[in-house]
């Protein structure tokens, strides 16, 4: 089983989580050895799921082909999103092996200085991105990269961003990541669900599902867009977001 790895031989974090253009997002800006253009390597063996080339730069969504062992000991599929390459180097469906060149640092999208924008999502690819409460577009199911990507022992670390990174030799499997089930109780009259491309707030809902009509409802949780907001597949509204904080009465197993 592959271990999910940090994607550049030299780590230089130039912008971290929840600051500047990353407000509310687990995003990292990465520079390599110097101010030039360094290669970004595939953190695991995977497949390009989406490519975007627009005024905001060139972007790739890359999903692991199999579950990988993460820095925190979890075994799960991952999606990595990379941005600002100056060229479009791949198409949807391209398979890239771990450690092979995936993209490069760049300045596309009016980026300041050569760098790579990195985000990591837990689970399978479920969509491009969505605007958070600060109108920053971020990856679905986002997690902190330093908790899911390990650093090979021989990597050069110039700036770790102030985060703790586990070395590859320190990573051991601690638990198998299992599927989660959402249970909406039978006494719930209705529950708002929200489209994938909008903030999950009142007024943006796709509609309502009716747990009491069916004696309660159960759904497999496909992922998370933010804390307490799960992704489920519904009969009437398709794939949606749903707010399931403990205070709502929702049960997650």
Whole-number count of domains = 2
Strand content: 35-45%
- CATH homologous superfamily label of the largest domain: Glucose Permease (Domain IIA)
Shape: globular
What Rg is obtained from the alpha carbons, in whole angstroms? 19 Å
Mean pLDDT: 92
Question: What is the H-and-E element order?
Answer: EEEEEEEEEEEEEEHEEEEEEEEE
From the coordinates shown, what is the CATH architecture of the largest domain? Distorted Sandwich
Sheet/helix structural class: mainly beta
Count of DSSP strands: 23
CATH topology of the largest domain: Glucose Permease (Domain IIA)
Low-confidence stretches: none
Q: Which class of the largest domain in CATH terms?
A: Mainly Beta
Largest sheet: 9 strands, mixed
Helix content: under 10%
Structural features:
Glucose Permease (Domain IIA); 2% helix; 253 residues; SH3 type barrels; 1 helix; 2 domains; mainly beta
Give the helix/strand layout.
Blueprint: E1 10-15, E2 28-31, E3 39-41, E4 46-54, E5 57-64, E6 68-69, E7 75-76, E8 78-85, E9 95-96, E10 101-104, E11 116-122, E12 130-131, E13 137-138, E14 142-143, H1 145-148, E15 156-159, E16 180-184, E17 191-193, E18 207-209, E19 217-221, E20 223-226, E21 229-234, E22 238-243, E23 251-252
Parallel strand pairs: 1-15
Antiparallel strand pairs: 1-2, 2-11, 3-10, 4-5, 4-9, 5-8, 6-7, 8-11, 11-14, 12-13, 16-19, 16-23, 17-18, 20-21, 21-22
């Amino acid at each position: 089983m592959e271990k999910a790895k940090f994607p550049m031989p030299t780590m230089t974090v130039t912008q971290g989580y929840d600051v500047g253009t990353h407000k509310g997002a687990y995003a990292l800006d990465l520079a390599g050895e110097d101010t030039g253009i360094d290669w970004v390597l595939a953190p695991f063996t995977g497949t390009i799921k989406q490519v975007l080339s627009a005024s905001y730069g060139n972007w790739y969504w890359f999903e692991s082909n199999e579950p990988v062992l993460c820095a925190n000991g979890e075994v799960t599929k991952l999606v990595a999103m990379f941005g600002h390459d100056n060229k479009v180097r791949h198409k949807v469906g391209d398979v890239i092996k771990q450690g092979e060149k995936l993209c490069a640092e760049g300045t596309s999208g009016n980026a300041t200085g050569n760098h790579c924008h990195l985000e990591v999502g837990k689970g399978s690819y479920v969509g491009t991105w969505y605007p958070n409460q600060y109108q920053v577009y971020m990856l679905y199911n986002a997690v902190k990269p330093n908790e899911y990507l390990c650093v090979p022992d021989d990597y050069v670390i110039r700036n770790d961003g102030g985060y703790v990174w586990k070395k590859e030799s320190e990573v051991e499997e601690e638990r198998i990541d299992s599927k989660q089930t959402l249970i909406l109780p039978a006494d719930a009259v209705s529950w708002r669900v929200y489209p994938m491309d909008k903030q999950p707030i009142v007024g943006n809902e796709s509609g309502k599902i009716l747990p009491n009509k069916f004696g309660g409802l159960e759904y497999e949780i496909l992922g998370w867009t933010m804390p307490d907001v799960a992704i489920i597949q519904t009969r009437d509204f398709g794939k949606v977001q749903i707010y399931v904080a403990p205070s709502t009465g929702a049960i997650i197993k």
